[in-house]
Amino acid sequence: MKHHIGPYRIYILALLFLLITAEIIWSWKKEKGSYEVKETFTNLAIFAGFQLSKYLFAGYQLTILGFFDHLSPLQLPRNGWSFLLTFITADFIYYWFHRISHNWKPLWAFHLIHHSGMHINLTSSYRLNWFSAIISPLFFIPVALLGMPINFIAISYTLNLAYQFLLHTEVVDKLGVIEKVLNTPSSHRVHHGSNPIYIDKNFGGVFIIWDRLFGTYQPETEKVNYGLTTGFLSYNPFKLVMQGFIDWFKPDNSPRLKDNSTPVLEASPEE
User: Fold this and answer.
1) pTM to 2 decimals?
2) In whole angstroms, how large is the CA radius of gyration of the chain?
3) pLDDT of 252 over the 90 cut
4) By the 8 A CB rule, do 168 and 124 touch?
5) By CB atoms within 10 Å of each CB, which of 80, 136, 149, 269 scores lowest?
6) Is residue 145 exposed (0-12), middle (13-18) or buried (19+ Cβ within 10 Å)?
């Protein structure tokens, strides 16, 4: 659900670059090891491909939502209250989209790449499948049928993903009472953990209340081990994009994040 941000795009990209640079400096000074050179360049390559895919699939996405928007007997007014309702509804939909993506093999095929990084940092936030735009609008059809404006849906989803960019970091510690309502870096580090207690936890986008309501919340209680439970996969962005689909059609196609026993694939970090 691509939203045109016109001339401000260059300023947003510049801000992202500054934030990433600041995090790299922090990691270096604190000796945190949040960045690994090959993995960082892989993340940037995946990011570039994802940006291209947004242009390729934008028309398809808007067509899907537009079709169901015309079918809706409702049309909410375009005001602040309607936007707030759309934003909260879109976040609720995102929670279920994300949760199902971890538990249904066809959707895990798209999502595997996001959990394949062995480190968490701001560049890992855009470790996204280039073909995810094919399925994401399908989950937002109910929002369009409820009469919420398409541009409100697109903006809400864009803001949701933008907020999540800030969650992929070790710079920010726990945030006290905020942890009870909003998704935070601490909560999202848990989501990326391959520790047994962290698997399939904290699916929220902006709000963590959905996880608390539906029993998928887990606070950060032990050091997080990042990546798939099967370990390192690859530095090749094309392999990372396609590996989920390859696994899907294998006879033994259990989702990689679920397999805590025998690795499906053994690979060296030197690959």
Assistant:
1) 0.87
2) 19
3) no
4) yes
5) 80
6) middle
